[in-house]
Amino acid sequence: MNPVFRDVLITGVKIAIVIGGMLGVVAYLTLMERKVVAYIQERLGPNRVGPWGLLQPIADGIKLFFKEDVIPAHVDKVLYVIAPMIVMTMAVMPFVIIPFSKRFYLSDINVGILLLLAISGINTYGVLLAGLSSNSKYSMIGGLRVASQLISYEVALALAFVGIVLWSGSMSLVKIVEAQHTIWNIVPQIIGFIVFFIAALAELNRIPFDLPEAEAELVAGYHTEYSSMKFALFYLGEYANLTAMSAIITTVYLGGWQGPWLPGFVWFAIKMFIVLFVFMWIRWTYPRFRFDQLIGVGWKLLVPLALLNIAITAILRIYI
Amino acid sequence: MIFKLATALTFGVFAVLFVLLALWIGKFLRPKGRPFAEKDYPYECAERPLMPAWFNYNPRFYIYAIAFIIFDIEVAFIFPVAVVYKKWLEAHLGGLAFMEIAIFSIILFIGLVYLWGKHDLEWIRVMGLWTSKRSEVKSHGQS
Amino acid sequence: MKVIFYVNAFFSLVFALGVLFGKNPLRSALSLLLFFISISLYFFFAGSDYLGFVQIIVYAGGIIVLIAFVIIILGLRRESPDFDISLRSFVGIILLALFALGVLYGMGKSILHFVPQSPYFDTSVAGIGDAIFSRYLLPFEVASILLLVGVVLAFIFAKKEV
Question: pTM value?
Answer without folding.
Answer: 0.84
